[in-house]
Automatic annotation (TrEMBL):
Keyword line: Hydrolase
Organism the protein comes from: Halomonas aestuarii
An annotated Gene Ontology molecular function: hydrolase activity
UniProt protein name: N-formylglutamate amidohydrolase
Domain of life: Bacteria
InterPro entries xrefs: N-FG_amidohydro (IPR007709), UCP029730 (IPR011227)
Length: 265
C-alpha cells in the first residue's frame, strides 16, 4: 500500500487517500497539539498530554487499521480542547470550559467571533477533508463504510470502567450489530454496545454528519486506552478488531481485504 501522506491543511492529516479498501477511517482526537497562538489554553502543563486533550493511542490504532484495511484515514492535527471535531459548532462541548476534572481557562467566555474562528480553522477543514475523500470514492464507485476511532480512560470521575471495547452507533446500527454479532471471537474482551458513551452523550456527531448523512453504514470504535499504551499494543488491538470488522463487512455485502498491513510512522 502506498505510504501517501497528505496535509490538506495545517490542522488536518490525510493518509492513503487513494486506498481502495471498503472503509474510511476518521480519528477526530488524534493529537494533543495546541497551536502557539492559543497560548496552551492556560492549561496546567500536566494536562496538556492527558486524555482531556486527546485520545491516547487512537491515532496509532487508526494507522494500524488503515494498513490492514487498505483504508484512507482523516485525522485532526489539533487538540480537541481547541475544537472537538466530533461536535457541531453550536455544542458547548465543541470548545469545553471543563473536561472531567480539567479546567480549560482559554475556553472561558469565548466570543462569537472567537468561536467562529476556531470553527473555520479546525472543524471546517476536517469536515471538508472527509467530504472530499468520500466524494472521490463515490466517483470511483468504491463501496464505503465509515469507522471512527477513539480511546477512553480506564476510570472516569473515580468510577472504574470494566468495558474494554465499545461499539457505538446512532440511528444506523448496521455495522455495530454486525460487529457485535462477532464478539464471541474475542472471548477475553469485555465488548459492549454504546458503552462507555452513547448517542445521549453527544458523541455521534461524525457518524451522523459523515455516515448517516451520506447513507453509509458507520460505527464508532472506542478502546480503553490502557490497552493502547505502546505501538505494539495498538497493532495487536488492530488485529483483534479485524476479527470483528472483516466478517461484519462481509455480512453487509462488502468485500474486505485480508492482509497483513504495515503501519506508517
Amino acid at each position: 500500500m502506498s505510504s501517501e501522506i497528505e496535509q490538506s491543511s495545517p490542522n488536518v492529516e490525510i493518509r492513503h487517500r487513494q486506498a481502495e479498501g471498503p472503509v474510511v477511517l476518521l480519528c477526530e482526537h488524534a493529537s494533543h497539539h495546541i497551536p502557539e497562538h492559543y497560548h496552551g489554553l492556560g492549561l496546567d502543563p500536566a494536562h496538556r498530554r492527558s486524555h482531556a486533550a486527546w485520545d491516547p493511542g487512537a491515532r496509532d490504532l487508526a494507522l494500524s487499521l488503515s494498513a490492514l484495511l487498505d483504508a484512507p484515514l482523516v485525522a485532526s492535527r489539533v487538540s480537541r480542547l481547541v475544537y472537538d471535531c466530533n461536535r457541531p459548532p453550536e455544542a458547548d462541548s465543541a470548545m469545553p470550559e471543563r473536561s472531567e476534572i480539567v479546567e480549560v481557562p482559554g475556553n472561558r467566555e469565548l466570543t462569537k467571533d472567537q468561536r467562529a474562528a476556531r470553527v473555520e480553522a479546525v472543524y471546517r477543514p476536517f469536515c471538508e477533508a472527509v467530504s472530499r475523500v468520500l466524494a472521490e470514492r463515490a466517483a470511483r464507485d468504491l463501496p464505503t463504510v465509515l469507522l471512527t476511532i477513539h480511546s477512553f480512560t480506564p476510570t472516569f470521575h473515580g468510577r472504574v470502567r470494566e468495558v474494554e471495547v465499545g461499539i457505538l452507533h446512532d440511528a444506523d446500527p448496521r455495522m455495530a450489530d454486525a460487529m457485535l454479532s462477532q464478539a464471541h471471537r474475542l472471548p477475553h474482551r469485555c465488548i459492549r454496545r454504546n458503552d462507555p458513551y452513547g448517542p445521549e452523550d453527544g458523541v455521534t456527531h461524525s457518524l451522523k454528519r459523515h455516515g448517516i448523512g451520506n447513507g453509509l453504514a458507520n460505527v464508532m470504535i472506542e478502546i480503553r486506552n490502557d490497552l493502547l499504551a505502546t505501538l505494539d499494543e495498538a497493532d495487536a488491538m488492530a488485529r483483534e478488531l479485524m476479527q470483528l470488522i472483516q466478517p461484519a463487512l462481509e455480512s453487509l455485502g462488502v468485500e474486505c481485504p485480508s492482509r497483513e498491513g504495515q503501519r506508517d510512522a
